[in-house]
Amino acid sequence: MGCKLELERPVQKLLQRLQDDVAERIKERMKRLAENPICEKKLKGRLKGYCRARIGEYRIIYRLQPCT
């Protein structure tokens, strides 16, 4: 079961500025996370409650919420 993926506006702009191959790798990972929402690495401190996924030198910071 897939979940809804919401991107904030700064993320959308960043994806447009990245090289095509890098942007595609990031989009593919986000798609996989939406299809199979797992927390790859839990964050601590002020980002407690968020998760992190690594794609080369980039990181996706996300929060899991129940799928509707």
How would you describe the overall organization of this protein?
The protein is of the alpha+beta class and 68 residues long. It has helices at residues 9-17, 20-35, and strands spanning 51-55, 58-62. It has one domain (9-62). It is built from two helices and two strands. The protein has a two-stranded antiparallel ribbon. Strand 1 (51-55) and strand 2 form a beta hairpin. The longest helix is centred in the middle third of the chain and has 16 residues, at 20-35. The relative contact order is 0.20. The model has no long low-confidence stretch (mean pLDDT 89).
Work out the strand percent. 5-15%
Number of helices: 2
Strand order of the largest sheet: 1-2
Tell me the radius of gyration. Answer: 12 Å
For the largest beta-sheet, the strand count, sense and barrel status come to: 2 strands, antiparallel
C-alpha termini separation? 10 Å
Q: What's the arrangement of secondary structure elements?
A:
Elements: H1 9-17, H2 20-35, E1 51-55, E2 58-62
In short:
The protein contains two helices and two strands; from the N terminus they run H-H-E-E. It is of the alpha+beta class. The protein has one domain.
Protein traits:
single chain; two-stranded antiparallel ribbon; alpha+beta; 68 residues
